[in-house]
Amino acid sequence: MGTLYLVRHGQASFGAEDYDQLSELGHRQCVALGQYWRARGLKFDAVLTGSLKRHAQSFAGIAEGLGEVPQPLVWPGLNEYDSHAVIGAIHPEPLGKPNGPEEYRHHFRLLREGLQAWIRGATQPVGMPSYTEFSAGIAAALDHVRQHHHGGSVLIVSSGGPISTAVGQVLHTPPDMTIELNLRIRNSSVTEFAFTPKRHMLVTFNTLPHLDSVEGAAMVSYS
Length: 223
What we know:
alpha/beta, 8 helices
């Protein structure tokens, strides 16, 4: 039996012109995760990442803390959906940068509604695949792990949408539950699957063992 660790990227640049960049905190989160694994002697047989900058930067932070790590296989099917396009499909008016709690809540209400519409097939956000195609890209990555790395330890570095979708596929959750899982995944969190050549099994979800301290608690983030 193998073990698959799915890691959400570190804190990115929410509200900035280019979200797809790790913040300084995001880098420290990922280095801390690598250091945590290094202290426990964890070694990976294979690594897959999405092709976004925040995925590559998160992997680099993990590798900095962990030490020797295999070169990653870049898998675009592990890329996140475009949240701006998802919201724009139901709310065409431009949204300003959130500047307070109510504006943040409004943003995530729209995101939840946009995801629901996309999953149902009621909208087709500009420049994005259908939800069926998005899900298929994630399922293909899981299939690859089962087929090629049985008995090994595998790392996937991706985003909240793909990770929650993977959990939903393993647990056969309804779409609304997948969305709720997505909106609660923390930066640099670890979700763990055990796997055989036939299936994946959920072991843990959205854990932060590397931030389990007074100092680490101040590094927890969601965006």
